[in-house]
Design a protein that fits this description.
The complex is a heterodimer of chains A (350) and B (453). Chain A has one domain: Orthogonal Bundle (ABC transporter involved in vitamin B12 uptake, BtuC). Chain A contains 16 helices and no strands. In chain A, helix 1 runs antiparallel to helix 15, helix 4 packs across helix 11 and helix 5 runs antiparallel to helix 11. Chain B has 16 helices and 13 strands. In chain B, the strands form two sheets. Chain B has a seven-stranded mixed beta sheet with strand order 1-3-2-4-5-6-12, with helices on both faces. Chain B has a six-stranded mixed beta sheet with strand order 8-7-9-10-11-13, with helices on both faces. The chains are: A mainly alpha (350), B alpha/beta (453). The interface between A and B is large, with 62 and 61 residues.
Chain lengths: 350, 453
């Protein structure tokens, strides 16, 4: 019995461990491509260009990852992110003394948006796709309305844009913020009960409900925390752009989802790796830079970017490795049928 | 099933993004385009006799060319007049900008500027349509241009209603098309607008013209450059385009870079991919760059723009990141959008590349950049600009009104330009809003109310 179960167990462990592997392979491939056709992207200036925007996408993607882990999806990211960026202007009023208040306002309003999403989806069981799309539109509408009360395209406080552009240990502070958030999530998922429950509830909400875990609360919390992460990204973006405008978050609809998927998350909920998600965000930002350094026309950049996302969806998660596992099992099956051990060999090894 | 659904939705989203980008590319340019005769040659603007004569003849259409020279210089700088037909219409439009506005007019202007539809109170029968691909809420330049058009309309007692639409830079051309169709359905008598989506707007503009509604664009807003596939021909397919001679503008940019940089790397920046405005001047800038200059981002072909920023703040830093990563020693840029350069200079700070030995050739003149320049006080960093051109929407209104009164309007109303070097005086700390062009003809008290905050 032990002899027949062993290969499958090893494969299963490998499946779990390898679902996050493609993103690191992608980064390796990107480095190889860049070293040949765009070596400047691997230099100091190139890495400095990747760090802040990669972190910004990474923070947003981590929020999206939390939602996807609950089996949902969040299309309110552009609205929430834009709201945060514009609040940085409106509440900030170009005064360095108001930076703290502006950040708090941005995160607070975002949390409210997340709470609305969470209640509608986790509490009232409405479709996540439609709800978040609608709430995002409402947020964008509110931003536009709010934008009329401030001077459109006004700058953020100078102190904020200056700080965002400084370096901490030679790297953008936004990168370090992204790293810290990533590590916090890693620790939470691995070493805290709350984190482990969060994963379990996402992976199997029915069973979780049976054992008494509060699935609804889990979903609501995911949307709230996610929205707060979008807000952090929004205030960071405002600092980077200096004049964010009322549509600054619009490009952040697809990118974070792509990063989560390429990072190996299961779109059906449950498994996800903050580290891989953050790495995927860095990869996508790096890819963007490499294409620009290579001088690809804008149209071709879109094509390549889209193809990479599709490719990432194809090879990420357990799609490939499960296929390999299936082939391996099929090849072993005839021998066992002959020996009459098929049932005992594979039962329960899933 | 759930996973399949989500993947399906993601695929649709990806396709939408791809479709939008593809549309932007294919609807604003086409194969087989070579030169840009409509934009390079002032002779294309052959004047009709009725508009070539000065003052007295235009009075036939209720216009005067007796514009305040100070306002003319404010709007354009110390320019040489363009062809007579164009120049007369420009003077007529600026003559109407000499307004001593009473509070009632200011209130009405603000109402019309902020509303989709307003009654001007004049009792006039005409309905003016204003179709902006941007909008008040998304861009200061668009916002001010809209107000210029509103104030101009209020000088015509014949205009009783103003209907305004804004596509807010929507990436879906259908949104822009629907705005024009809405104006047609609303029964406007003429449309003034900026066609951000280029030839994608051709069908709607054609429908307007077929319905007897003249369409006049401003800021060199061609509905596709005349030699682009699918483009409409101004003067034939629609009333007119108000704007600079794009090729001359591009050559002026090149001259600035040739002189200011001399030897070294330069880059060109533009707006949405293959838009007519950027394509028009970039073609001629490239052709006029001196031998000592190396263009680090040449376009894929002569029908493509390069340095596509979409004139959209979040899209600007990645462009600068790409350019500076490969070429940290870039010594000059040509671009339409001064404020976009201001955003791009943030990238210099992030990449720790000093802003020095830099020459900028720009079209617009947002104060933000100029004040930033003054603050840097870097003698090897110089900016040259043309003019913000907000007032051109006024010229569009006047051209349309003259047309309705029977005047023949040139196919392109050429707005003359001159490149001016930025000096510390260009930064006015008391300016109502730092993003408002110094060349706008909207009175300061109106601007103050527009951007009251």
């Amino acid at each position: 019995m032990t002899v027949t179960r062993a290969p499958s167990s090893v494969l299963t462990s490998f499946v779990i461990a390898s679902r996050y592997l493609p993103v690191y392979m992608a980064i390796l491939l990107l480095v190889i491509v860049a070293s040949i056709w765009a070596p400047e992207a691997l230099g100091g200036v190139g890495l400095s260009a990747i760090a802040p925007y990669g972190a910004l996408l990474g923070i947003t993607a981590l929020g999206q990852m939390l939602v996807i882990m609950t089996g949902g999806i969040d299309l309110s990211v552009p609205g929430t992110l834009t709201m945060a960026a514009v609040l940085m202007v409106g509440v900030g009023q170009q005064s360095d003394d108001r930076i703290g208040a502006a950040i708090l306002a941005a995160i607070g309003v975002a949390a409210l948006i997340g709470l609305i999403n969470g209640i509608l989806i986790g509490g009232l069981k409405l479709n996540a796709l439609i709800v978040t799309l609608a709430v995002g539109q409402v947020a964008l509408g509110a931003v536009n309305r709010y934008g009329r009360t401030i001077s459109v395209q006004s700058p953020v406080p100078t102190g904020w844009s200056t700080w965002v552009s400084t370096r901490i240990i030679g790297v953008s502070p936004l990168f370090w913020i992204g790293v810290v958030i990533t590590l916090l999530l890693v620790v939470a998922f691995r070493y805290t009960t709350v984190g482990r429950r969060f994963q379990v509830v996402g992976a199997n909400p029915v069973a979780s409900r049976v054992v008494g875990l509060r699935v609804n609360l889990n979903q609501i919390a995911a949307y709230v925390v996610a929205a707060m992460l979008y807000a952090i990204a929004g205030v960071a973006l405002a600092g980077l752009l200096r004049i964010p405008g009322v549509s600054s978050g619009l490009p952040y609809l697809l990118g974070p989802i792509a990063a989560v998927v390429i990072g190996g998350a299961s779109l059906t909920g449950g498994l996800a790796s903050p580290l891989s998600t953050f790495a995927a965000a860095i990869f996508l930002t790096g890819l963007n830079l490499v294409m620009r350094v290579m001088g690809l026309p804008t149209s071709l950049q879109f094509v390549v970017f889209g193809l990479v996302i599709i490719g990432g969806m194809l090879v990420s998660g357990d799609r490939i490795i499960k296929g390999v596992e299936q082939v391996f099992r099929e090849r072993r099956r005839p021998n066992r049928i002959e020996r009459g051990t098929i049932k005992s060999s594979f039962d329960g090894t899933g | 099933m759930k996973r399949t659904t989500i993947i399906g939705v993601l695929t649709v989203l990806a396709l939408v993004v791809a479709a939008c980008s593809d549309t932007a590319s294919t609807t604003t340019a086409g194969p087989g385009t070579t030169a840009s005769p409509g934009t390079t040659a002032a002779p294309a603007t052959t004047a009709a006799p009725s508009t070539t004569a000065v003052g007295g003849v235009l009075s036939e259409y209720g216009e005067s060319t007796d514009a305040d020279p100070d306002l003319v210089e404010k709007a354009l700088g110390p320019v040489e007049p363009s062809d007579e037909a164009s120049w007369n219409i420009i003077l007529a439009s600026i003559a109407r900008a000499s307004q001593d506005l009473d509070q009632a007019t200011i209130d009405k202007a603000l109402e019309c500027w902020a509303s989709q539809e307003c009654d001007t109170g004049s009792g006039g029968d005409l309905v003016m349509g204003y179709a902006d691909g941007g909008g008040n809420d998304v861009n200061v330049w668009r916002s001010v241009s809209h107000m210029e058009a509103v104030l101009q309309a209020l000088t015509y007692p014949e205009i009783g209603t103003i209907v305004s639409t804004a596509a807010n830079f929507d990436q879906d051309p259908a949104v822009h098309v629907n705005q024009v169709r809405f104006l047609i359905q609303r029964g406007v008598d003429f449309i003034v607008g900026y066609p951000d989506v280029g030839v994608a707007l051709a069908e709607a503009v054609g429908e307007a013209e077929a319905a007897g509604i003249p369409y006049a664009s401003f800021s060199a807003g061609y509905v596709g450059l005349p030699d682009q596939e699918g483009a409409l021909i101004p003067g034939e397919d629609y009333l007119t385009v108000v704007g600079e001679d794009l090729c001359a503008l591009g050559e002026s940019f090149a001259e600035i870079l040739n002189t200011g940089v001399g030897t070294g790397e330069v880059a060109l920046l533009g707006g949405t991919p293959n838009n007519a405005l950027s394509l028009g001047w970039q073609r001629c800038t490239i052709g006029a760059l001196g031998d000592g200059l190396e263009l680090v981002n040449p376009p894929a072909n002569e029908n493509s723009t390069t340095g596509d920023t979409y004139w959209f703040p979040p899209a600007i830093p990645p462009v600068f990141n790409g350019l500076l990563t490969a070429n940290p020693g870039i010594r000059g840029y040509a671009y339409e959008y001064a404020d976009g350069i201001y955003i791009g200079l943030g990238t210099y700070q992030e990449l720790e590349i000093p802003v020095e030995n830099l020459t900028l050739a720009l079209r617009t003149d947002e104060q933000t950049l100029f004040c930033d320049w003054a603050e840097r006080n870097e003698p090897t960093y110089n900016i040259w600009y043309s003019a913000g051109g907000n007032f051109q929407s006024r010229t569009g209104v006047t051209a349309a009104m003259m047309s309705l009164k029977g005047a023949e309007i040139p196919a392109t109303v050429i707005v003359p330009h001159v490149m001016r070097q930025v000096t510390p005086e260009n930064c006015d700390p008391n300016r109502v809003d730092p993003l408002v062009s110094g060349t706008s003809l909207v009175p300061d008290d109106v601007l103050a109310l527009m951007f009251a905050g």
